[in-house]
């Protein structure tokens, strides 16, 4: 509880005690001998003590032209109650309104706490190792790429980098939500915001601070509140028109009945005050965004960053889940498992050397696997460059492969499409895995089979997503049909679209969006080529740990530890949040409309009005706080209501 909240709490306790004494005095007849002005002043003192800040805000807002808000409604309603001699009701309205505001502040503070924890991951300094070996404490924003940093045990890693000396366990829970420390050794990548647990590490920075993981996370968190859901926008618009309408209605209720001789001014003003008190929209204005904020906070605790409540609302409505294959369902750890020469006079060494020469400038995981195989298994075999016949004019053909020149001969390294486009006859392989065909000139020389491994728990994760309400799961991949189908059958994918170029993926998602009129389409990917699809889908979900910066930037939701099992968790958190928000809206509107009608016809008391405003607001706020409660048991399917 903040200092301001404690101050408000103490004021409430003091005025509540005074209010109890005043009620006792009033009901025991102690005020009967006092003149009305004296009673007015006795009640006015605690009223000003508890309500001076509300009155101040109301007058400030009026001076700025912002008349119709809850402060104005409270001021007019309590002034009206004083005007007709309902002193205890006037004090009660302001007192219980402040109790409601305290509950609101506390609830907002609790919901912000989980997100505020994320803000604490920002490192305050970086230990830069100078050329002479001295260590200088520097602002992380001033550290350049390639700088060597010293990370002591218990310190946060300030900037993403590569370990160049030492080994240790690092706590990644603040970033990924994963409680088990991760061991890092020389050559391993480390991300900013993680805590070094055991030993001294030296790292070489690979990014600037503004591009590092911790900076990106903080930017996402800070901008999350700017992207409102449809429900929040509706409530904002609703309150904008609702408040002046009920204020005008209260004025008419106070004036018209006495003018027509239906009732006295005192009775009509009392009904108008009840009307004003009940009409205060704070239960809706506060509880709806608070519910969404709680959902975003619950997600962040488990390493799921939701960039705005509009995306939380969208993922709750997702009934089609589209997944990229490599790096999402599979690990993206490609290994050359087989090399098949096309003829007896062609050696495996020749095939792998041609492929390695073509792939040497590519950062694609398949290219890296070819290069690793060439380096590890063929160190004793001269490369093409050793023969002074290095490949030239290397060009990457998106979705097909690579073309190059070996002397005067054309070289082709890629999929079946590449060879067909260039009219090269070849034997198509049916082996599971990623198939690379190699051709020299117009002659097919051989096949390289590369296999990827499916992530542990991928099948269970997809099963959980379906249990969470996803009707169908679809896989899009640039890989061949047989490999894609083999992976899909193992993990429970409903439909597969294979051999797709990046543009084809966008086109396929657009067709799914057209087909899916009753729900939302969510796409999960991790690569640079997934960025256009992530932006085009209703909800884009990116892998935050291994995913590319472009994918994370384009996505609406980021899974910080690449665990696709958390897709079902964020869907369930979102649906629970939406259910709570809808409960608040229905409950608040029902109670308020009921008491408004009762008040207009003289059946509601001022105390009922207080419940219709403060009571409903407190109950709605307490209900919203349920959105923050989410545990690993819930993630495993034991969902609490």
In terms of per-residue confidence, which ranges show pLDDT below 50 for 5 or more consecutive residues? 381-388, 637-641
How confident overall, as mean pLDDT? Answer: 79
CATH class of the domain at 335-451: Alpha Beta
* Overall SS class: alpha+beta
* Radius of gyration based on Cα positions: 33 Å
CATH level-4 homologous superfamily of the domain at 335-451: Calcium-transporting ATPase, cytoplasmic domain N
Taking the sheet with the most strands, its summary is: 7 strands, mixed
How many beta-strand segments? Answer: 22
What strand order characterises the main sheet? 10-22-21-20-11-18-19
Helix content: 40-55%
DSSP summary: helix tally:
21
Q: What is the general shape? A: elongated
Query: Beta fraction of the residues?
Result: 15-25%
CATH architecture of the domain at 335-451: 3-Layer(aba) Sandwich
Give the CATH topology of the domain at 335-451: Calcium-transporting ATPase, cytoplasmic domain N
* Distance N to C terminus: 27 Å
Keywords:
six-stranded antiparallel sheet; Calcium-transporting ATPase, cytoplasmic domain N; 51% helix; Calcium-transporting ATPase, cytoplasmic transduction domain A; disordered C terminus; 22 strands; 641 residues
What can you tell me about this protein's structure?
The chain is α+β, with helices and mostly antiparallel strands and 641 residues long. Among the domains are: 126-155 and 160-206, Distorted Sandwich (Calcium-transporting ATPase, cytoplasmic transduction domain A), CATH 2.70.150.10; 335-451, Calcium-transporting ATPase, cytoplasmic domain N (3-Layer(aba) Sandwich), CATH 3.40.1110.10. The chain has 21 helices and 22 strands. It has a seven-stranded mixed β-sheet, sandwiched between helices. Strands 2-1-3-9-4-7 form a six-stranded antiparallel β-sheet, with no helix packed on it. It has a six-stranded antiparallel β-sheet with strand order 12-17-16-15-14-13. Helix 7 packs antiparallel against helix 9 (282-301). The protein is elongated, with a radius of gyration of 33 Å. The chain starts with a helix and ends in a 6-residue tail after the last helix.
